[in-house]
Design a protein that fits this description.
The chain has 20 helices and 7 strands. The chain has helices at residues 12-35, 45-51, 54-57, 59-77, 87-110, 116-145, 151-177, 188-193, 213-225, 244-249, 266-272, 291-302, 318-325, 330-341, 350-364, 392-397, 417-420, 441-447, 465-468, 489-498; strands at 369-371, 379-382, 405-409, 431-433, 455-457, 479-481, 503-505. The protein has a 7-stranded mixed beta sheet. Strand 2, helix 16 (392-397) and strand 3 (405-409) form a beta-alpha-beta unit. Bound molecules: heme C.
Length: 508
């Protein structure tokens, strides 16, 4: 036995595996015909239970197949055709793919309220994938027995498996997460290539014209909180909510919405059930509707649940007005939540403790001092209305409230380097505007202490190349405005190297 003439392996193994493989493939292919239409009621509970493991098990063949592809890509690159290195891996791929297909089948029979076309395509895809994987394993046993002959066919089969897998897992994801799960946030060029319309960025409520209550108020709420389970593919309770007619029609339990009668509308009944109730919607674990959203839905239903009524067509109350004002875009809300969970938490109660100071300052500088938002403890101050009447002594009066200040606009005021000293107390300050003031490099010494400062405007001041280098340690700085200062391009570049994340605006 030499290396150039290794012994032929027995072909009994491959023949045995071919027979088994053939039987498995035939059985899988016959499965849909043999089982007939899905009927949830005929299925034993234990079968339904086992079927629920499909979403867990299906990751096995995906991972294994990727592993096989990696091994074979390695073999191809290093020209090791006769290797049997991926045989056990393709065996487990085939085995787990068959298992996943069988479990998927049980799931299909226990949850008949999915979109029929999509679920059937997914089912067929899963079966084809399992068959391809079994065939690939059988071929691999032959390839190994024949010392690497036919490796090509094995690799073609693997490519088939990969293609079917991509297709099938996309359908599976659409079933569980809704059709646009993968593509919703895809970049526009990719969406275009897939034949999808460009991404709709958040529809702003047009202030000028009268918004339509259903499309502009109700749909955005349902979209966020209900559509994920009640859409064309996933009709939980046989209830599809993303079409107006179906939203009203309801599901297995009848009317979703009875116009004018929110109390009798199934949808409202479910929403109003206590949160612990099994039938409460959205179900446990999903983000509940907010109070103002419930107010708006109820208002719309009681107002006739019209598809095209305008905001002004429905009777307006203070509660509704308030609820309408609470709607913010999802992005804005995340920003607000992020801001709210930051240092503000420690400052809870700050609002109360500062009340007296704020009242006094508000009287002195009318409409200059405000809270960042309705439910924020953060203060913002703008001297835009006062400008030249506002100097260092005035700035000193803000001292007690400076720690709560997040934005300070001192544009064109008489503030000088002396005043800038006080600013070191504004430890939470994120945005500071000092354009066209008398500050110079000396002021920058004090500003470096502002560890949350993200935006600094020094437009039209006397700061210089040497001065701004003091800011080199302010890694949190995102924007710095320096046009019409003594800083030149070289100076800006020198600082830019120290602060790669900061956008330095020179005004050219
Ligand atoms: C996580 C998935 C999920 C979300 C999100 C969800 N639902 Fe459901 N919904 C279900 C399931 C499952 C059923 C069927 C079981 C049942 O009746 O409780 C159902 C049933 C219903 C039904 C009864 C349909 C019928 O006639 O049988 C209504 C009404 C309903 N949901 C309303 C809503 C509303 C309104 C929202 C959004 C606020 C919502 N659901 C969000 C899963 C969900």
């Amino acid at each position: 036995m030499t290396e150039s003439d290794p012994p032929r392996r027995s072909i009994i193994g491959p023949i045995f595996f071919s027979l088994c493989g053939f039987l498995v493939i035939a059985a899988l292919a016959a499965l849909p015909f043999w089982a007939g239409k899905p009927q949830e009621n005929n299925l034993p509970e234990v079968a339904k239970f086992i079927g629920r493991f499909h979403p867990v098990v299906l990751h096995l063949p995906i991972g294994m197949l990727v592993w096989v592809l990696i091994i074979e890509a390695g073999n191809l690159i290093f020209r090791k055709s006769a290797q049997s290195s991926s045989r056990s891996a393709i065996f487990f791929t085939a085995f787990s793919a068959v298992l996943a297909a069988l479990l998927g089948f049980l799931l299909y029979f226990s949850m008949p309220d999915y979109d029929k076309d999509l679920v059937e395509r997914h089912l067929v895809g899963g079966i084809i994938l399992a068959c391809c994987a079994v065939a690939a394993f059988v071929v691999k046993t032959w390839v190994d027995a024949l010392e690497g002959r036919g490796t090509k066919h094995y690799r073609y089969l693997l490519l088939c498996c990969a293609g079917v897998m991509a297709f099938t897992s996309h359908d599976g994801a659409s079933l569980t997460h809704g059709k646009g799960y993968l593509t919703d946030h895809a970049p526009d060029p990719l969406r275009k290539a897939l034949g999808l319309p460009a991404r709709t960025t958040e529809k702003p409520l047009k202030k000028t014209d009268d918004p339509i209550v259903y499309t502009d108020v109700i749909v955005p709420i349902l979209e966020q909180k209900c559509y994920s389970c009640h859409n064309a593919e996933k009709r939980k309770g046989k209830y599809q909510m993303d079409k107006y007619d179906l939203l009203l029609a309801g599901g297995t339990k009848g009317h979703g919405i009875i116009p004018g009668k929110s109390a009798d509308s199934n949808m409202m009944v479910r929403i109003n059930l206590p949160e612990g109730d099994d039938e409460h919607m959205p179900p446990e674990g999903k983000k509940d509707l907010e109070e103002h959203e419930v107010v708006l839905i109820k208002w719309w239903i009681d107002g006739g649940a019209s598809k095209d009524a305008k905001l002004t067509d429905l009777p307006m109350t203070d509660a509704v007005k308030q609820a309408l004002s609470m709607r913010v875009s999802p992005e804005k809300r995340t920003q607000q939540n992020a801001a709210a969970s930051q240092p503000v938490k420690q400052t809870a109660g700050r609002r109360d403790s500062l009340k007296a100071d704020i009242a006094q300052l508000s009287a002195q500088f009318p409409s200059a001092l405000n809270f960042e938002s309705q439910d924020s403890n953060n203060l913002v101050f703008t001297a835009v209305g006062i400008r030249k009447k506002f100097g260092d002594e005035d700035l000193a009066k803000l001292k007690p409230v400076l720690p709560a200040m997040t934005a300070l606009d001192l544009s064109s005021t008489k503030v000088t380097d002396e005043g800038a000293k006080i600013l070191a107390d504004a430890t939470d300050l994120k945005s500071l505007r000092l354009p066209e003031t008398d500050v110079s490099d000396l002021a920058l010494d004090h500003l470096t202490k502002l560890s949350h400062l993200e935006s600094l405007n020094l437009y039209g001041t006397r700061v210089s190349n040497a001065g701004i280098l003091k800011l080199a340690g302010m890694k949190q700085l995102k924007k710095l405005y320096l046009w019409h200062t003594d800083v030149d391009a070289a100076g800006a570049r020198a600082l830019g190297e120290k602060l790669p994340d900061c956008e330095i605006v020179m005004g050219q």
